[in-house]
Design brief:
By secondary structure, the protein is an alpha/beta fold. Helices cover 26% and strands 21% of the residues. Strand 3 (22-25), helix 1 and strand 4 (50-54) form a beta-alpha-beta unit.
Length: 253
């Protein structure tokens, strides 16, 4: 699959081209608008060419630009888990289902997140906005996913399907293409390896479900993993790291 990365301050979004238009997977922080426009320009893609946005889950670094993009092209259909529908309407990252930061090293680093973002974006990022985003009300034209449909069955002419991959959040989904490429959102990550992440994302809602999602992706035939945080990697990294992080090490807020 020809997958085009759009690297933002923290999140990598992905563009895939079915036919004459593009599908965008995730959007990045609300503060990433300038980086997003630059990334699109470098890819030679206009917002008018995007037909769908697939949200892997409701977090601020994945849906923050949704309103800005839809303001420019209101015909885009947003695809999300039905569980995402209510969570994204709240306007902040859900913390009602438990979980915590992966370990103490990660917790130490995350306390400095706003400073890091301010440095990358070259403007102040207010701490009051941490984990928050503009609430989104799903429209009649949007597509709410209950099960694990093939993309062609929901109007996207690509060879692949949506699979449920909870653990990071309850509403997490991934997109698995028939050639083995898997855009996985935060169901895995390639970041902060020096802090012992071992291909986990920094926040885990349910560690058992998280690793079960890895097993599901492996069993479904994934070969290359495209995470929202970090560079793509072989599925072999998931196979060799299952279970290495423990729920007992999570740092709760």
């Amino acid at each position: 699959m020809n997958i085009i990365p759009i690297k933002l301050s923290v999140t990598t979004c992905y563009l895939i081209k079915p036919g004459d238009q593009y599908v965008l997977i995730d959007t990045g922080y609300a503060e990433d608008w300038g980086l997003f426009l630059t990334g699109l320009k470098e890819a030679g893609v206009g917002i008018s060419q995007i037909s769908h946005i697939i949200l892997t889950h409701h977090h601020d670094d994945h849906c923050g630009l949704l309103h800005d993009i839809l303001r420019e092209n209101g015909s885009i259909r947003v695809v999300m888990s039905r569980l995402c529908k209510d969570l994204i309407l709240v306007g902040k990252n859900d913390q009602t289902h438990g979980g915590g930061l992966l370990n103490r090293q990660v917790a130490f680093l995350i306390r400095r997140k706003q400073f890091y973002l301010s440095m990358i974006l070259k403007k102040k990022v207010d701490k009051a906005d941490n984990l928050k985003f503009k609430p989104y009300q799903a429209r009649d034209c949007d597509i709410l996913v209950d099960e694990e449909p093939r993309l062609c069955d929901i109007g996207i002419p690509l060879d692949g399907r949506i699979i449920k991959t909870p653990g990071h959040t309850v509403d997490s989904i991934s997109i698995l293409f028939d050639d083995g490429d898997c855009v996985i959102g935060d169901a895995a990550a390639h970041m902060l390896s020096f802090a012992g992440t071992k291909y986990c994302v920094i926040f885990i809602c349910n560690m058992d479900e998280y690793y079960k999602s890895w097993e599901k992706v492996i069993a479904a035939g994934a070969r290359r993993i495209f995470p929202a945080h970090g560079k793509p990697f072989s599925v072999e990294k998931l196979k060799s790291n299952i279970g290495k992080n423990k729920a007992a090490n999570l740092v709760h807020n």
